[in-house]
Design brief:
cytochrome-c oxidase activity; Cytochrome c oxidase subunit 2; binds copper (II) ion; 8 helices; EC 7.1.1.9; oxidoreductase; Immunoglobulin-like
Length: 335
C-alpha cells in the first residue's frame, strides 16, 4: 500500500517536472520579440512605456510571488491533511470544532494581503489616470471591422486602417493579422493622448507593449495615454468580441523620430502643431527651409489667432522641449 502511494507521488512529480520543462524550455531562453507576441512565450510582452514597466513590476514582483506562496501553502495544507488525517493514519477523528484564534488569523491574514496588494494596485491605477500634459492627440474609432485614426492637432482627418491581407503580409515579412494597411504613426518620447470611441458596437483599443487597453464604446469617448521609449513597430488588436471579423482589426503603431513624424504628417497633408519658441529658433538656425512649415501653427488653441507667433508661448515649457531642441537641428541636416 505504501509503495503504491510512493509510486503515485513519483508519477505526479515526474508529470510536474515534464510540464515545467515543456513550459519553460520553449520560451525561457528565447529572446522575446519586441512589440508582438513571441511563439511559445508565457510572460508578459516586454514594455516600452513607463506604464507597462509599472504593470510588469506589479505583476512580477507583487502578484506572482503572493499567488505562488498562497498556492504552495494551500497545496502543503492539503497534502498535510491527506497524509496525517486519512482513515489509516487517523482512524478515530477528533470531535472538537471552532478555534477562535485560528478563525481570527484566517480572516485577518487575507485582509492584510489584499490591503498590501491594494496599495500597489491603486498606485498603478493612479499612474494610468494621471496623464502628463499630452504632446499629441490621436483619435481611434473602432468600426466593424477596422480602425479609423484621426489627428485633430495636425488637421489630419480620419483615415482607415484595415488588416493587411495575408499574401501582402507574407511578401512584406510582417505578422499577418497584426499588420495593418495604415499604421498609427506617433513620435517617440512624447506623451500621446489616445481618444477612443466606437462607431457601431463596443470594440477595445489594446497595445500590449504599451500596457494599454481601453474600451471603444459608441457614444462615449474614452481616454488613455502612452509615452514610447524606443522607436519601433508595435502591434495590438481589438480586444472586445465585436462580431465575425473581430480577429481581423489589428493595430499597428510606428514610433518614429520627430523628423520622421513631421514627414509623415506632411505626406498626409497635415500641419505640424505650433512649436515652442526654443524649437523655432533652433530650426531657424539649422536651416531656413524648415522654418515656414514649423511656423504654420495648426493647434486648435491658436486657431483664433493663427498668425500670432506669441500664441504658442504658453505651450509646454516642459523637459520635452529640451529634447526637441537637440533633435530639431539634426533633422534638416539629414536632407
Ligand atoms: Cu472590434
Amino acid at each position: 500500500m505504501k509503495s503504491g502511494f510512493q509510486g503515485m507521488r513519483s508519477l505526479a512529480m515526474g508529470l510536474a517536472a515534464g510540464a515545467m520543462s515543456a513550459f519553460w524550455g520553449a520560451s525561457a531562453f528565447a529572446e522575446d520579440l519586441m512589440g508582438q507576441p513571441t511563439p511559445g512565450a508565457i510572460d508578459l510582452q516586454p514594455g516600452v512605456t513607463p506604464l507597462k514597466h509599472d504593470a510588469i513590476f506589479f505583476h512580477n514582483a507583487i502578484l506572482l510571488p503572493i499567488i505562488t506562496a498562497i498556492t504552495l501553502f494551500v497545496l502543503g495544507l492539503l497534502i498535510y491533511v491527506m497524509v496525517k488525517f486519512n482513515k489509516r493514519a487517523n482512524p478515530v477523528p477528533a470531535k472538537w470544532s471552532h478555534n477562535t484564534a485560528i478563525e481570527v488569523v484566517w480572516t485577518l491574514v487575507p485582509v492584510l494581503i489584499l490591503v498590501f496588494i491594494a496599495i500597489f494596485s491603486f498606485k498603478l491605477l493612479f499612474a494610468y489616470h494621471d496623464m502628463p500634459k499630452p504632446d499629441l492627440t490621436v483619435k481611434a474609432t473602432g468600426y466593424q471591422w477596422y480602425w479609423g485614426y484621426e489627428y485633430p492637432d495636425q488637421k489630419i482627418s480620419e483615415f482607415v486602417s484595415n488588416v493587411l491581407p495575408e499574401d501582402k503580409a507574407k511578401a512584406k515579412g510582417v505578422p499577418y493579422r497584426l499588420a495593418a494597411t495604415e499604421p498609427l504613426v506617433v513620435p517617440v518620447g512624447k506623451t500621446v493622448r489616445v481618444l477612443v470611441t466606437g462607431a457601431d458596437v463596443i470594440h477595445a483599443f489594446a497595445v500590449p507593449a504599451f500596457g494599454v487597453i481601453i474600451d471603444a464604446i459608441p457614444g462615449r469617448v474614452n481616454e488613455t495615454w502612452f509615452k514610447i521609449e524606443k522607436p519601433g513597430v508595435y502591434y495590438g488588436s481589438c480586444r472586445e468580441l465585436c462580431g465575425v471579423d473581430h480577429a481581423f482589426m489589428p493595430i499597428e503603431v510606428h514610433a518614429v523620430s520627430d523628423a520622421e513624424f513631421a514627414a509623415w504628417v506632411a505626406s498626409k497633408h497635415g500641419t505640424m502643431a505650433a512649436p515652442t519658441p526654443t524649437q523655432v529658433s533652433a530650426e531657424v538656425q539649422g536651416t531656413g527651409a524648415a522654418a515656414p512649415s514649423a511656423a504654420a501653427a495648426g493647434q486648435p488653441a491658436a486657431a483664433t489667432a493663427p498668425e500670432n507667433p506669441a500664441a504658442p508661448a504658453g505651450a509646454t515649457p516642459s523637459p520635452t522641449s529640451a529634447t526637441n531642441t537637440t533633435a530639431a537641428p539634426q533633422a534638416p541636416a539629414a536632407h
